[in-house]
Amino acid sequence: MSPAAAASGRLVLRGGKPLTGEVPVRGAKNALPKIMVASLLTGEDCTLRNVADVADVAIVSELIEAIGGTVERPERGVIRIRPGNIQPMERSVLREFSGRSRIPILTCGPLLARFGDAPVPSLGGCRIGQRPVDFHLNALQHMGATLHEEASASHLTCERLQGAKIKLEFPSVGATEQVILAAVRAEGVTELSNAAIEPEIMDLIMVLQKMGAYISVDVDRVITIVGVRQLHGYDHTALPDRLEAASWACAAVSTDGRIFVRGARQVDMMTFLNKYRQIGGDFDVRDDGIEFWRAGSELRSIALETDVYPGFTTDYQQPFVIALTQARGISIVHETVYEQRFGYIEALNRMGAQIQLYRECLGGLTCRFGQRNWKHSAVIAGPTPLRGAEIHIPDLRAGFSYVIAALAAQGDSTLTNTNLIDRGYENLNEKLLALGAEIVSVD
Ligand code: EPU
Known about the structure:
Strand 4 (70-72) and strand 5 form a beta hairpin. Helix content is 30%, strand content 24%. The protein is an alpha/beta fold. Residues 30, 102, 126, 129-136, 170, 172-175, 196, 243, 313-315, 337-338, 396-397, 424 line the site of uridine-diphosphate-2(N-acetylglucosaminyl) butyric acid (EPU).
């Protein structure tokens, strides 16, 4: 996220009350913008439903319009994209979007497929690690693209992308999406191994299948794509946001409340639900959502490791740790996806948590950060009462986690830089009020 985009929003919360009531979740923040990017692969109109008002949707809408497409909103939650008139992307357009989001890198595959030329953006997104794009660029070069590195802006060119055998060093979500988006219109077969298989990727694959693509997801993280010349438009309802649903679940258990998350879907959240139950959370799965609460009076400690799907997703980690500060005993969390995803712990300790960070891998999973000086394991002693504090929000998930911590704490907390939370949590203040949270002031 660019510093310019990052510095606004202030929320004062009074803690100590359980959150109780109902909140809706709509389409997944980590699926919607990618499905919008898929529209660049066709000249036909595309309709996307269950669209949440989150920053990346607005950014990708602007990006599509900046290259000649139109994006209409015929009704709330529906987006109609008309990509018929899109043009190759000028460098100046890309510069405008660089630093605002991580999504623009995913336009490389579709623009190469359509025009044989794609500028390479420098990226925004939350600062939770180095987050390079080497897998993306290596894969596209493997498929026949040439990278022209220039001081001002690099770009990729190709005749027609060629199918290839590609193995990712790590099952990266973005790189998997990049390869799929590039391969659907490439010549021949692409076999991607060590691919990520997150539910949001499956949703993108379903969209592409509707558009006429041939994609199979085989055992052991292998995805095979048979390229076609042309793709059609789509009409698709995006999957619900499991990360937001899990965040509210953590809010329920941390404040000893009860929250029904309308739209939450069990199939995407099975790993989370197992861990939730292990620490003493309970839930009721219904056709229209999941209700979350604390089973007994006390929560229990746990040892867990974040991992790629179907493991315990890294984006669950921060809100879950807030719940663990309220659990009896010593919990251990080994973060294996991002090297710097514990930056939020210092402020949490100021609120009264007792969390120590370690460079060692405190878990059984092989991890890329072990011998490299990153503090990527946390030991949490609980339960610790929390007290209000002044906190500057560093990234999206940490931001929501501080909201939970502030609501579980005694006293007032002042959170600044809250616009980062809007990036992934639609109508946050309205939802908090609906759950009975006490908002002292907001600006
Ligand atoms: N990586 C590389 N090289 C690459 C790409 C990734 O080394 O070319 C590394 C990253 O540095 C990281 C790991 O691979 O250590 C995983 O990164 P990945 O590519 O999977 O992440 P991403 O696609 O940039 C998406 C989500 C993240 C989520 C991760 C992992 C979006 C817009 N973002 O990011 O969501 O944490 O996958 O599941 O889909 C969030 O929602 O808060 C969030 C950060």
